[in-house]
Amino acid sequence: MSYHIVVCGGIVPDPLQTLEPVMGPAGPSLKNESMLPAVLDPWAAHALFEAANLARNVAGSKVWLVSLGPKAKLQQVMMTVAQKAAFELVPIDGPAGAFTDPVGVSGALAAAIETIAGLDRQQLLVFGGWESATRGAGATMQMVGERLGIVDQFQGVDSLSPREDGSFEILERIEGGQHQVSVCAGPPALVGWATGSLAEPRNNPQVGMANMRTIMPALQKARAASLSGCPPQFVSVTLPRQQRSTRVMKDLSTDEIAREIVAWVNGD
Amino acid sequence: MDTILFLAFTESDGSLAKPALEVLGSAVAMGAPLTVGVIGASIAAASQQVGGCGATRFLSVTGEEFGRSRYSTDAAAAEAIARAAGATLVIAPASSRTNRALPGVAHRLDGAIDTHVTAIADGGSVTRWYYRQRMEAVVNRTARPWFILLESGCHTAWTGEPREASFETVAVSLPPLRTAVTGVRSPQSGEQTIRPDARLLFVAGAGWTKKQADGQPHPREAEELILGFLHKTKASLGGSKSLVDLSGEGEAVLQFMTHLNQIGQTGATPRHPKGLSTCCHGEEPHVVGWRFITERRAVNLDPNCGWARGKADVLYVADAFEVMRKVNALLG
Asked: From the CA of A239, how many Å to the nearest CA of chain B?
Protein backbone atom coordinates (compact mmCIF):
# COMPACT_ATOMS: atom_id res chain seq x y z
CA MET A 1 0.00 0.00 0.00
CA SER A 2 1.53 3.28 -1.07
CA TYR A 3 0.27 6.64 0.14
CA HIS A 4 -0.66 9.92 -1.43
CA ILE A 5 0.13 12.29 1.41
CA VAL A 6 -1.15 15.85 1.27
CA VAL A 7 0.30 18.10 3.96
CA CYS A 8 -1.57 21.31 4.76
CA GLY A 9 0.84 23.84 6.20
CA GLY A 10 0.60 27.58 6.60
CA ILE A 11 3.32 30.10 7.24
CA VAL A 12 3.71 32.09 10.42
CA PRO A 13 5.87 34.95 11.63
CA ASP A 14 9.22 33.76 12.93
CA PRO A 15 8.50 32.95 16.60
CA LEU A 16 11.39 35.12 17.75
CA GLN A 17 9.85 38.27 16.25
CA THR A 18 8.05 40.79 18.41
CA LEU A 19 4.39 40.82 17.43
CA GLU A 20 2.09 43.79 17.89
CA PRO A 21 -1.56 43.90 16.82
CA VAL A 22 -3.02 46.88 14.97
CA MET A 23 -6.66 47.54 14.21
CA GLY A 24 -7.58 48.63 10.70
CA PRO A 25 -10.83 49.10 8.80
CA ALA A 26 -10.68 45.48 7.65
CA GLY A 27 -10.06 44.19 11.16
CA PRO A 28 -6.93 43.36 13.12
CA SER A 29 -3.55 42.55 11.65
CA LEU A 30 0.06 42.58 12.78
CA LYS A 31 2.12 45.74 12.74
CA ASN A 32 4.51 45.58 9.76
CA GLU A 33 3.13 42.15 8.95
CA SER A 34 4.49 42.12 5.42
CA MET A 35 7.99 42.87 6.73
CA LEU A 36 8.11 40.08 9.31
CA PRO A 37 10.25 37.10 8.34
CA ALA A 38 8.16 33.95 8.10
CA VAL A 39 8.67 30.24 8.71
CA LEU A 40 6.60 27.15 8.03
CA ASP A 41 4.14 26.68 10.88
CA PRO A 42 5.99 24.52 13.47
CA TRP A 43 3.38 21.77 13.81
CA ALA A 44 2.78 21.69 10.07
CA ALA A 45 6.55 21.34 9.68
CA HIS A 46 6.45 18.26 11.91
CA ALA A 47 3.65 16.94 9.68
CA LEU A 48 5.77 17.52 6.60
CA PHE A 49 8.80 15.77 8.10
CA GLU A 50 6.66 12.81 9.14
CA ALA A 51 5.08 12.69 5.67
CA ALA A 52 8.46 12.70 3.97
CA ASN A 53 9.71 9.98 6.27
CA LEU A 54 6.62 7.85 5.63
CA ALA A 55 6.92 8.34 1.87
CA ARG A 56 10.59 7.37 1.99
CA ASN A 57 9.75 4.15 3.78
CA VAL A 58 6.72 3.13 1.72
CA ALA A 59 7.60 2.68 -1.93
CA GLY A 60 5.44 4.49 -4.46
CA SER A 61 4.27 7.15 -2.02
CA LYS A 62 4.25 10.83 -2.84
CA VAL A 63 3.99 14.06 -0.81
CA TRP A 64 2.26 17.33 -1.70
CA LEU A 65 2.45 20.48 0.44
CA VAL A 66 -0.64 22.70 0.20
CA SER A 67 0.14 26.10 1.63
CA LEU A 68 -1.97 29.25 1.91
CA GLY A 69 -0.12 32.54 2.18
CA PRO A 70 1.02 35.62 0.31
CA LYS A 71 2.92 34.40 -2.74
CA ALA A 72 6.09 36.36 -1.97
CA LYS A 73 6.20 35.01 1.58
CA LEU A 74 5.62 31.47 0.40
CA GLN A 75 8.55 31.80 -1.95
CA GLN A 76 10.78 33.05 0.87
CA VAL A 77 9.78 30.19 3.19
CA MET A 78 10.13 27.55 0.48
CA MET A 79 13.77 28.48 -0.05
CA THR A 80 14.43 26.82 3.31
CA VAL A 81 11.67 24.23 3.55
CA ALA A 82 12.43 22.80 0.11
CA GLN A 83 15.79 21.59 1.39
CA LYS A 84 14.22 19.57 4.20
CA ALA A 85 11.99 17.11 2.35
CA ALA A 86 10.92 16.09 -1.13
CA PHE A 87 7.45 17.36 -2.04
CA GLU A 88 5.38 19.05 -4.68
CA LEU A 89 4.04 22.46 -3.69
CA VAL A 90 0.41 23.43 -4.20
CA PRO A 91 0.44 27.13 -3.32
CA ILE A 92 -2.62 29.27 -2.67
CA ASP A 93 -2.15 33.01 -2.73
CA GLY A 94 -4.03 34.48 0.24
CA PRO A 95 -3.80 35.75 3.79
CA ALA A 96 -1.67 33.82 6.28
CA GLY A 97 -2.38 35.65 9.53
CA ALA A 98 -4.33 34.61 12.59
CA PHE A 99 -7.36 36.81 12.07
CA THR A 100 -9.07 34.68 9.44
CA ASP A 101 -11.65 31.98 10.03
CA PRO A 102 -11.16 28.21 9.75
CA VAL A 103 -14.31 27.91 7.63
CA GLY A 104 -12.82 30.03 4.86
CA VAL A 105 -9.32 28.62 5.16
CA SER A 106 -10.54 25.03 5.11
CA GLY A 107 -12.57 25.78 1.99
CA ALA A 108 -9.51 27.10 0.17
CA LEU A 109 -7.36 24.14 1.28
CA ALA A 110 -9.94 21.50 0.37
CA ALA A 111 -10.54 23.11 -3.02
CA ALA A 112 -6.80 23.07 -3.72
CA ILE A 113 -6.52 19.41 -2.71
CA GLU A 114 -9.36 18.51 -5.05
CA THR A 115 -7.46 20.04 -7.98
CA ILE A 116 -4.32 17.90 -7.48
CA ALA A 117 -3.88 15.83 -10.61
CA GLY A 118 -3.49 12.10 -10.09
CA LEU A 119 -4.48 12.13 -6.44
CA ASP A 120 -6.02 8.79 -5.46
CA ARG A 121 -8.57 9.20 -2.66
CA GLN A 122 -8.17 5.55 -1.69
CA GLN A 123 -4.50 6.20 -0.91
CA LEU A 124 -5.04 9.64 0.59
CA LEU A 125 -3.59 10.72 3.90
CA VAL A 126 -4.21 14.37 4.71
CA PHE A 127 -1.62 15.66 7.17
CA GLY A 128 -1.37 18.98 8.97
CA GLY A 129 -0.52 20.47 12.33
CA TRP A 130 -3.07 19.88 15.09
CA GLU A 131 -3.02 23.62 15.68
CA SER A 132 -1.38 26.55 14.02
CA ALA A 133 0.96 29.02 15.65
CA THR A 134 -1.27 31.84 14.43
CA ARG A 135 -4.95 31.27 15.22
CA GLY A 136 -4.13 28.20 17.28
CA ALA A 137 -7.72 26.97 17.08
CA GLY A 138 -7.12 23.40 15.99
CA ALA A 139 -10.26 23.54 13.86
CA THR A 140 -9.17 23.93 10.24
CA MET A 141 -7.98 20.38 9.59
CA GLN A 142 -11.23 18.81 10.81
CA MET A 143 -13.15 21.03 8.39
CA VAL A 144 -10.81 20.10 5.55
CA GLY A 145 -11.52 16.47 6.35
CA GLU A 146 -15.26 17.05 6.40
CA ARG A 147 -15.14 18.82 3.05
CA LEU A 148 -13.22 15.85 1.60
CA GLY A 149 -15.58 13.33 3.19
CA ILE A 150 -12.95 11.89 5.56
CA VAL A 151 -14.39 10.73 8.90
CA ASP A 152 -11.33 8.88 10.18
CA GLN A 153 -9.56 11.82 11.77
CA PHE A 154 -6.88 12.02 14.44
CA GLN A 155 -5.51 15.05 16.27
CA GLY A 156 -2.46 15.62 18.44
CA VAL A 157 -0.73 12.71 16.74
CA ASP A 158 2.80 11.75 17.74
CA SER A 159 3.12 8.47 15.85
CA LEU A 160 1.68 6.73 12.79
CA SER A 161 2.93 3.18 12.20
CA PRO A 162 1.83 1.29 9.06
CA ARG A 163 1.10 -2.39 9.53
CA GLU A 164 1.40 -5.25 7.08
CA ASP A 165 -2.34 -5.56 6.49
CA GLY A 166 -2.56 -1.95 5.27
CA SER A 167 -3.91 -0.58 8.52
CA PHE A 168 -1.92 1.75 10.74
CA GLU A 169 -1.57 2.40 14.42
CA ILE A 170 -1.95 5.97 15.63
CA LEU A 171 -0.92 7.57 18.90
CA GLU A 172 -2.93 10.68 19.79
CA ARG A 173 -2.25 12.97 22.71
CA ILE A 174 -4.92 12.94 25.39
CA GLU A 175 -5.14 14.42 28.87
CA GLY A 176 -2.52 13.72 31.51
CA GLY A 177 0.41 13.34 29.15
CA GLN A 178 -0.85 10.04 27.77
CA HIS A 179 -1.50 8.73 24.28
CA GLN A 180 -4.67 7.09 23.02
CA VAL A 181 -3.86 4.16 20.75
CA SER A 182 -6.09 3.56 17.72
CA VAL A 183 -5.91 1.30 14.70
CA CYS A 184 -7.32 2.68 11.46
CA ALA A 185 -8.15 0.32 8.60
CA GLY A 186 -6.17 2.48 6.17
CA PRO A 187 -6.54 5.52 3.95
CA PRO A 188 -8.34 7.81 3.52
CA ALA A 189 -7.58 9.43 6.85
CA LEU A 190 -6.73 12.84 8.25
CA VAL A 191 -3.90 13.30 10.74
CA GLY A 192 -3.27 16.47 12.74
CA TRP A 193 0.28 16.11 14.00
CA ALA A 194 1.67 17.31 17.29
CA THR A 195 5.46 17.07 17.40
CA GLY A 196 5.81 13.50 16.17
CA SER A 197 9.13 11.88 16.95
CA LEU A 198 11.47 13.08 14.21
CA ALA A 199 14.13 15.72 14.57
CA GLU A 200 14.17 18.47 11.96
CA PRO A 201 15.98 17.10 8.87
CA ARG A 202 19.24 18.70 7.87
CA ASN A 203 19.23 20.92 4.81
CA ASN A 204 19.84 18.91 1.65
CA PRO A 205 20.70 21.22 -1.26
CA GLN A 206 20.09 18.47 -3.81
CA VAL A 207 16.56 17.91 -2.56
CA GLY A 208 16.13 21.69 -2.50
CA MET A 209 17.17 22.08 -6.12
CA ALA A 210 14.92 19.24 -7.25
CA ASN A 211 11.97 20.74 -5.35
CA MET A 212 12.55 24.26 -6.63
CA ARG A 213 12.20 23.08 -10.23
CA THR A 214 8.50 22.52 -9.57
CA ILE A 215 8.00 25.05 -6.78
CA MET A 216 8.84 28.16 -8.78
CA PRO A 217 6.44 27.40 -11.66
CA ALA A 218 3.76 26.44 -9.14
CA LEU A 219 4.20 29.75 -7.32
CA GLN A 220 3.92 31.67 -10.57
CA LYS A 221 0.63 29.92 -11.31
CA ALA A 222 -0.73 30.16 -7.74
CA ARG A 223 -4.37 31.14 -7.69
CA ALA A 224 -5.62 33.87 -5.42
CA ALA A 225 -8.05 32.59 -2.83
CA SER A 226 -11.00 34.56 -1.56
CA LEU A 227 -11.87 33.11 1.81
CA SER A 228 -15.56 32.33 2.17
CA GLY A 229 -17.47 31.97 5.41
CA CYS A 230 -18.54 34.35 8.12
CA PRO A 231 -15.46 35.72 9.87
CA PRO A 232 -15.63 36.84 13.50
CA GLN A 233 -15.91 40.44 14.59
CA PHE A 234 -12.95 41.44 16.69
CA VAL A 235 -13.98 43.69 19.58
CA SER A 236 -10.36 44.11 20.67
CA VAL A 237 -6.93 42.58 20.20
CA THR A 238 -4.36 43.49 22.83
CA LEU A 239 -1.00 42.43 24.16
CA PRO A 240 -1.18 41.07 27.70
CA ARG A 241 0.31 42.96 30.57
CA GLN A 242 3.68 41.29 30.71
CA GLN A 243 5.68 43.01 33.36
CA ARG A 244 5.68 41.73 36.90
CA SER A 245 7.64 43.48 39.54
CA THR A 246 10.22 40.79 40.15
CA ARG A 247 11.81 40.55 43.58
CA VAL A 248 15.42 39.62 42.82
CA MET A 249 17.03 37.72 45.72
CA LYS A 250 20.79 37.83 45.21
CA ASP A 251 22.14 37.63 48.72
CA LEU A 252 20.22 34.77 50.31
CA SER A 253 22.09 31.63 51.29
CA THR A 254 21.08 28.33 49.68
CA ASP A 255 19.52 27.24 52.98
CA GLU A 256 17.41 30.37 53.18
CA ILE A 257 16.28 30.03 49.57
CA ALA A 258 15.35 26.38 50.10
CA ARG A 259 13.36 27.21 53.24
CA GLU A 260 11.53 30.01 51.44
CA ILE A 261 10.69 27.80 48.45
CA VAL A 262 9.43 24.97 50.67
CA ALA A 263 7.25 27.37 52.66
CA TRP A 264 5.86 28.79 49.43
CA VAL A 265 5.23 25.38 47.88
CA ASN A 266 3.46 24.14 51.00
CA GLY A 267 1.48 27.34 51.51
CA ASP A 268 -2.06 27.99 50.27
CA MET B 1 -32.23 35.69 22.21
CA ASP B 2 -29.74 32.87 22.01
CA THR B 3 -30.57 29.40 23.23
CA ILE B 4 -27.80 27.28 24.72
CA LEU B 5 -26.82 23.66 24.38
CA PHE B 6 -24.34 22.46 26.98
CA LEU B 7 -22.61 19.47 25.40
CA ALA B 8 -20.25 17.06 27.14
CA PHE B 9 -18.83 13.55 27.01
CA THR B 10 -18.93 11.41 30.14
CA GLU B 11 -15.92 9.82 31.78
CA SER B 12 -15.48 6.05 31.86
CA ASP B 13 -17.61 5.86 35.05
CA GLY B 14 -20.50 7.71 33.43
CA SER B 15 -19.94 10.95 35.31
CA LEU B 16 -19.02 14.42 34.12
CA ALA B 17 -15.53 15.61 34.98
CA LYS B 18 -14.88 18.91 36.74
CA PRO B 19 -14.08 20.84 33.52
CA ALA B 20 -17.50 19.85 32.17
CA LEU B 21 -19.21 21.07 35.33
CA GLU B 22 -17.29 24.34 35.05
CA VAL B 23 -18.71 24.84 31.58
CA LEU B 24 -22.17 23.91 32.82
CA GLY B 25 -21.72 26.60 35.48
CA SER B 26 -20.88 29.10 32.77
CA ALA B 27 -23.86 28.05 30.65
CA VAL B 28 -26.27 28.31 33.59
CA ALA B 29 -24.89 31.74 34.48
CA MET B 30 -25.74 33.06 31.01
CA GLY B 31 -29.41 32.83 31.95
CA ALA B 32 -30.66 31.77 28.52
CA PRO B 33 -32.90 28.76 27.81
CA LEU B 34 -30.65 25.75 28.34
CA THR B 35 -30.54 22.22 26.94
CA VAL B 36 -28.12 19.65 28.34
CA GLY B 37 -26.63 17.13 25.94
CA VAL B 38 -24.54 14.21 27.22
CA ILE B 39 -22.70 11.51 25.27
CA GLY B 40 -21.11 8.34 26.62
CA ALA B 41 -21.26 4.62 27.13
CA SER B 42 -23.22 5.33 30.29
CA ILE B 43 -24.70 8.57 31.61
CA ALA B 44 -26.21 7.39 34.89
CA ALA B 45 -23.85 9.34 37.13
CA ALA B 46 -23.99 12.40 34.90
CA SER B 47 -27.77 12.33 35.05
CA GLN B 48 -27.61 12.75 38.82
CA GLN B 49 -25.04 15.54 38.53
CA VAL B 50 -26.97 17.76 36.12
CA GLY B 51 -30.57 17.00 37.07
CA GLY B 52 -30.99 20.19 39.09
CA CYS B 53 -29.28 22.65 36.76
CA GLY B 54 -32.53 24.15 35.49
CA ALA B 55 -32.25 22.95 31.91
CA THR B 56 -35.51 22.71 30.00
CA ARG B 57 -34.43 19.66 28.08
CA PHE B 58 -31.97 16.80 28.53
CA LEU B 59 -30.69 14.91 25.48
CA SER B 60 -28.37 11.94 25.40
CA VAL B 61 -26.59 9.56 23.09
CA THR B 62 -25.49 6.37 24.80
CA GLY B 63 -23.97 3.05 23.81
CA GLU B 64 -20.68 1.19 23.92
CA GLU B 65 -19.42 2.76 20.70
CA PHE B 66 -19.74 6.20 22.30
CA GLY B 67 -17.63 5.27 25.30
CA ARG B 68 -14.43 5.56 23.29
CA SER B 69 -12.99 8.79 22.01
CA ARG B 70 -13.11 8.50 18.21
CA TYR B 71 -13.80 11.21 15.66
CA SER B 72 -16.42 9.43 13.58
CA THR B 73 -18.63 8.36 16.48
CA ASP B 74 -18.08 11.49 18.57
CA ALA B 75 -18.89 13.79 15.66
CA ALA B 76 -21.98 11.79 14.70
CA ALA B 77 -23.30 11.83 18.28
CA ALA B 78 -22.60 15.54 18.80
CA GLU B 79 -24.17 16.38 15.46
CA ALA B 80 -27.32 14.44 16.32
CA ILE B 81 -27.71 16.17 19.68
CA ALA B 82 -26.97 19.62 18.25
CA ARG B 83 -29.56 19.13 15.52
CA ALA B 84 -32.12 17.85 18.00
CA ALA B 85 -31.51 20.76 20.37
CA GLY B 86 -31.54 23.41 17.68
CA ALA B 87 -29.64 25.76 19.98
CA THR B 88 -27.85 28.84 18.66
CA LEU B 89 -24.93 28.50 21.10
CA VAL B 90 -23.25 25.17 21.78
CA ILE B 91 -20.96 25.37 24.79
CA ALA B 92 -18.63 22.51 25.64
CA PRO B 93 -15.52 21.92 27.74
CA ALA B 94 -12.23 22.00 25.85
CA SER B 95 -10.77 18.50 25.94
CA SER B 96 -8.85 16.30 23.54
CA ARG B 97 -12.18 14.73 22.61
CA THR B 98 -14.22 17.88 21.98
CA ASN B 99 -11.30 19.73 20.40
CA ARG B 100 -11.04 16.94 17.85
CA ALA B 101 -14.71 16.35 17.06
CA LEU B 102 -16.63 19.62 17.41
CA PRO B 103 -14.93 21.67 14.66
CA GLY B 104 -16.17 19.08 12.19
CA VAL B 105 -19.63 19.19 13.73
CA ALA B 106 -19.70 22.98 13.43
CA HIS B 107 -18.93 22.54 9.75
CA ARG B 108 -21.70 19.98 9.30
CA LEU B 109 -24.19 22.42 10.83
CA ASP B 110 -22.89 25.30 8.72
CA GLY B 111 -21.94 27.08 11.91
CA ALA B 112 -18.82 28.61 13.44
CA ILE B 113 -16.50 27.58 16.25
CA ASP B 114 -14.12 29.18 18.70
CA THR B 115 -11.83 26.93 20.68
CA HIS B 116 -9.53 27.58 23.65
CA VAL B 117 -11.94 30.22 24.92
CA THR B 118 -11.03 31.60 28.33
CA ALA B 119 -14.08 33.77 29.07
CA ILE B 120 -17.63 34.31 27.87
CA ALA B 121 -18.90 37.83 28.49
CA ASP B 122 -22.48 38.82 29.27
CA GLY B 123 -22.85 40.43 25.87
CA GLY B 124 -22.04 37.13 24.19
CA SER B 125 -18.49 37.88 23.13
CA VAL B 126 -15.70 35.46 23.98
CA THR B 127 -12.04 35.90 24.88
CA ARG B 128 -9.32 33.77 23.38
CA TRP B 129 -5.62 33.98 22.62
CA TYR B 130 -3.84 34.29 19.30
CA TYR B 131 -0.27 33.68 18.18
CA ARG B 132 0.37 31.08 20.87
CA GLN B 133 -0.82 33.09 23.84
CA ARG B 134 0.99 36.24 22.76
CA MET B 135 -2.09 38.40 22.22
CA GLU B 136 -5.60 38.29 23.60
CA ALA B 137 -8.70 39.06 21.54
CA VAL B 138 -12.36 39.58 22.33
CA VAL B 139 -14.43 38.10 19.55
CA ASN B 140 -18.07 38.12 18.59
CA ARG B 141 -19.93 36.29 15.85
CA THR B 142 -23.22 36.50 14.03
CA ALA B 143 -22.95 32.98 12.58
CA ARG B 144 -25.12 30.39 14.29
CA PRO B 145 -24.88 27.80 15.64
CA TRP B 146 -21.75 29.06 17.35
CA PHE B 147 -19.71 26.37 19.08
CA ILE B 148 -17.64 27.61 22.02
CA LEU B 149 -15.08 25.35 23.72
CA LEU B 150 -14.23 26.77 27.14
CA GLU B 151 -10.88 25.95 28.74
CA SER B 152 -10.79 24.41 32.20
CA GLY B 153 -10.25 26.60 35.21
CA CYS B 154 -12.08 29.58 33.70
CA HIS B 155 -15.36 29.33 35.62
CA THR B 156 -16.55 27.88 38.89
CA ALA B 157 -18.02 24.42 38.58
CA TRP B 158 -21.79 24.05 38.80
CA THR B 159 -22.89 22.34 41.97
CA GLY B 160 -26.37 21.38 43.00
CA GLU B 161 -28.32 18.76 44.84
CA PRO B 162 -28.13 15.39 43.05
CA ARG B 163 -31.33 14.88 41.14
CA GLU B 164 -32.15 12.43 38.38
CA ALA B 165 -32.60 14.14 35.02
CA SER B 166 -35.10 12.86 32.51
CA PHE B 167 -33.07 12.31 29.39
CA GLU B 168 -34.47 11.91 25.89
CA THR B 169 -32.45 9.48 23.78
CA VAL B 170 -31.33 10.82 20.43
CA ALA B 171 -30.87 8.37 17.57
CA VAL B 172 -27.55 8.48 15.71
CA SER B 173 -26.71 7.29 12.23
CA LEU B 174 -23.12 6.04 12.27
CA PRO B 175 -20.80 5.73 9.28
CA PRO B 176 -18.93 2.41 8.82
CA LEU B 177 -16.41 2.22 11.68
CA ARG B 178 -12.88 1.90 10.31
CA THR B 179 -11.06 2.97 13.45
CA ALA B 180 -10.77 0.90 16.61
CA VAL B 181 -9.55 2.43 19.84
CA THR B 182 -7.30 -0.15 21.44
CA GLY B 183 -6.14 1.54 24.62
CA VAL B 184 -4.09 4.19 26.31
CA ARG B 185 -0.33 4.28 26.51
CA SER B 186 1.78 6.15 29.03
CA PRO B 187 5.07 7.79 28.05
CA GLN B 188 7.88 5.35 27.37
CA SER B 189 9.80 6.60 30.36
CA GLY B 190 7.16 4.98 32.54
CA GLU B 191 7.21 8.10 34.70
CA GLN B 192 3.94 10.01 34.90
CA THR B 193 5.20 13.57 35.14
CA ILE B 194 2.32 15.57 33.64
CA ARG B 195 -0.38 16.29 36.17
CA PRO B 196 -2.87 18.88 34.90
CA ASP B 197 -4.56 19.14 38.30
CA ALA B 198 -1.33 19.76 40.23
CA ARG B 199 -1.03 22.93 42.30
CA LEU B 200 2.55 23.44 41.14
CA LEU B 201 4.26 23.39 37.76
CA PHE B 202 7.98 22.67 37.90
CA VAL B 203 9.74 23.90 34.79
CA ALA B 204 13.17 22.48 33.98
CA GLY B 205 15.39 24.31 31.54
CA ALA B 206 18.38 23.24 29.50
CA GLY B 207 20.71 24.52 32.21
CA TRP B 208 20.20 21.22 34.05
CA THR B 209 22.21 19.46 31.35
CA LYS B 210 25.02 21.98 31.01
CA LYS B 211 28.47 21.82 32.53
CA GLN B 212 28.43 22.70 36.21
CA ALA B 213 31.01 24.36 38.42
CA ASP B 214 33.31 21.32 38.22
CA GLY B 215 33.33 21.52 34.42
CA GLN B 216 31.20 18.39 33.97
CA PRO B 217 27.50 17.94 33.22
CA HIS B 218 25.54 15.93 35.80
CA PRO B 219 22.38 14.71 34.05
CA ARG B 220 21.84 11.73 36.34
CA GLU B 221 21.92 13.89 39.45
CA ALA B 222 19.62 16.35 37.70
CA GLU B 223 17.17 13.52 37.07
CA GLU B 224 17.29 12.43 40.69
CA LEU B 225 16.76 15.95 41.98
CA ILE B 226 13.88 16.73 39.62
CA LEU B 227 12.12 13.40 40.06
CA GLY B 228 12.66 13.59 43.81
CA PHE B 229 11.00 16.99 43.90
CA LEU B 230 8.12 15.78 41.72
CA HIS B 231 7.53 12.74 43.92
CA LYS B 232 7.53 14.79 47.11
CA THR B 233 5.33 17.63 45.87
CA LYS B 234 3.20 15.86 43.24
CA ALA B 235 4.03 18.75 40.94
CA SER B 236 3.60 18.62 37.18
CA LEU B 237 6.72 18.79 35.04
CA GLY B 238 7.23 21.18 32.16
CA GLY B 239 10.30 21.50 30.01
CA SER B 240 11.70 24.31 27.93
CA LYS B 241 11.95 23.69 24.18
CA SER B 242 15.72 23.49 24.23
CA LEU B 243 15.73 20.82 26.92
CA VAL B 244 13.00 18.77 25.28
CA ASP B 245 14.74 18.97 21.91
CA LEU B 246 17.93 17.63 23.46
CA SER B 247 15.98 14.62 24.71
CA GLY B 248 14.34 14.12 21.31
CA GLU B 249 17.71 14.05 19.63
CA GLY B 250 18.64 10.99 21.63
CA GLU B 251 21.18 12.63 23.89
CA ALA B 252 21.49 11.08 27.31
CA VAL B 253 19.94 13.92 29.23
CA LEU B 254 16.72 13.79 31.20
CA GLN B 255 15.23 10.50 30.11
CA PHE B 256 11.75 11.17 31.42
CA MET B 257 11.48 14.41 29.46
CA THR B 258 9.46 14.10 26.23
CA HIS B 259 7.80 16.52 23.85
CA LEU B 260 4.64 16.06 25.89
CA ASN B 261 6.33 17.98 28.69
CA GLN B 262 7.22 20.93 26.50
CA ILE B 263 5.68 24.23 27.41
CA GLY B 264 5.91 27.54 25.60
CA GLN B 265 5.66 28.69 22.03
CA THR B 266 5.36 25.25 20.46
CA GLY B 267 4.31 23.40 23.55
CA ALA B 268 1.57 23.60 26.14
CA THR B 269 0.48 26.54 28.23
CA PRO B 270 -0.76 24.72 31.32
CA ARG B 271 -2.80 26.26 34.13
CA HIS B 272 -1.53 25.88 37.66
CA PRO B 273 -1.77 28.11 40.73
CA LYS B 274 2.04 28.11 41.19
CA GLY B 275 5.08 27.63 39.01
CA LEU B 276 8.77 27.21 39.79
CA SER B 277 11.23 27.50 36.91
CA THR B 278 14.78 26.30 37.23
CA CYS B 279 17.70 26.74 34.86
CA CYS B 280 15.45 28.22 32.18
CA HIS B 281 16.65 30.74 29.68
CA GLY B 282 15.17 32.35 26.59
CA GLU B 283 12.96 35.22 25.73
CA GLU B 284 9.29 36.02 25.27
CA PRO B 285 8.23 33.29 22.81
CA HIS B 286 9.36 30.55 25.18
CA VAL B 287 8.06 32.23 28.28
CA VAL B 288 4.44 32.01 27.12
CA GLY B 289 4.48 28.67 28.90
CA TRP B 290 4.17 30.80 32.04
CA ARG B 291 1.13 32.70 30.79
CA PHE B 292 -1.50 30.96 32.90
CA ILE B 293 0.60 30.37 36.02
CA THR B 294 -0.63 32.59 38.84
CA GLU B 295 2.34 32.74 41.22
CA ARG B 296 5.75 32.36 39.60
CA ARG B 297 9.18 31.90 41.12
CA ALA B 298 12.47 31.17 39.40
CA VAL B 299 15.90 29.87 40.32
CA ASN B 300 18.61 30.96 37.94
CA LEU B 301 22.24 31.99 38.02
CA ASP B 302 21.46 34.69 35.45
CA PRO B 303 19.56 37.56 37.10
CA ASN B 304 18.61 38.96 33.68
CA CYS B 305 17.05 35.75 32.37
CA GLY B 306 13.96 36.28 30.23
CA TRP B 307 12.01 33.81 32.34
CA ALA B 308 12.58 35.81 35.48
CA ARG B 309 12.87 39.57 35.13
CA GLY B 310 9.40 40.98 34.74
CA LYS B 311 7.92 37.50 34.38
CA ALA B 312 8.43 35.92 37.79
CA ASP B 313 7.33 37.29 41.15
CA VAL B 314 10.54 36.17 42.83
CA LEU B 315 13.91 35.33 41.30
CA TYR B 316 16.48 33.49 43.40
CA VAL B 317 19.93 34.02 41.93
CA ALA B 318 21.48 30.69 42.86
CA ASP B 319 22.66 27.31 41.65
CA ALA B 320 19.56 25.15 41.05
CA PHE B 321 21.43 21.93 41.87
CA GLU B 322 22.30 23.21 45.33
CA VAL B 323 18.91 24.76 45.95
CA MET B 324 16.90 21.71 44.86
CA ARG B 325 19.16 19.40 46.89
CA LYS B 326 18.29 21.39 50.00
CA VAL B 327 14.63 21.74 49.04
CA ASN B 328 14.28 17.98 48.64
CA ALA B 329 15.97 17.43 51.99
CA LEU B 330 13.56 19.83 53.68
CA LEU B 331 10.57 18.21 52.01
CA GLY B 332 11.64 14.91 53.57
From this structure: 5
